[in-house]
Design brief:
The protein is an alpha/beta fold. 41% of the residues lie in helices and 15% in strands. It starts with a strand and ends with a helix.
Length: 265
Amino acid sequence: MQIGYNQATSMKYSSLEADVALCKKYGFDGLEMQTALMDKYMSLHSLNDLKELFCNSGVKAFPINAFTDFNIPGEGNNARLSYLCECANAAGADTVILVPGLREISPAETVEAIGNYAGIAAGYGIGLALEFLGFAESSVCSLEEACAIAEHIPGLRLVLDCAHIMGGTTDPSAILKLSQERIASVHINDLRCKQSGIYSDSDRVWPGDGDMILPEILQNLKTIGYDGIISIELFNEEYWGWPVEDIFAAAMEKTKACLVDRLGE
């Protein structure tokens, strides 16, 4: 199992250089770059700088997060993906994550978009991974929907975000139908049950601090033999207010404790 850190966890005070250094200090195997922070870095640096940043740190570049709204038509989409692939190559990442738009878009339109992007990414030697969102307004809102789309795209892998499983309509038993090779990465986090049943990204809490079905999700991953990337990804603004080193320390402590408790890792 490889433990990763997603920059959304400390987004307010994060920078790429600082987060790479803190990943090394606190023992994370890799960093999942948030594109907003990667863009900020790249506005002042070259691709060679990005390459040297990761090469000199010993920290791996995990899948880039993300090409957002990828299935909403836009003139700059192809150029945006090409740029993300160039950054992935420089940093040493092998995957770009696709995050769907929050509006009504048909599965056929989504398949068509990914088919186009898969050809572009393949030209850079980069794979794509689809992340569904558990929000009701998402155009791909469940693992079952993501799997149905992936059947039409050879080599497309999936990203499983625990919050989007817990807060959406996905049946966690759907994980048992996957091969571990189909999963590019898992975003670990937790949720506390709300009477409204409506969740936002800011509701995420540290793994193990929630009271929903995270244990079942992790057990199902263990059952299929998943031993890949597990990255902690929170958007909790309360945590953003902590000193950044405290965020990294808690992220590693909570993630490791949860994995040891549930997976024996």
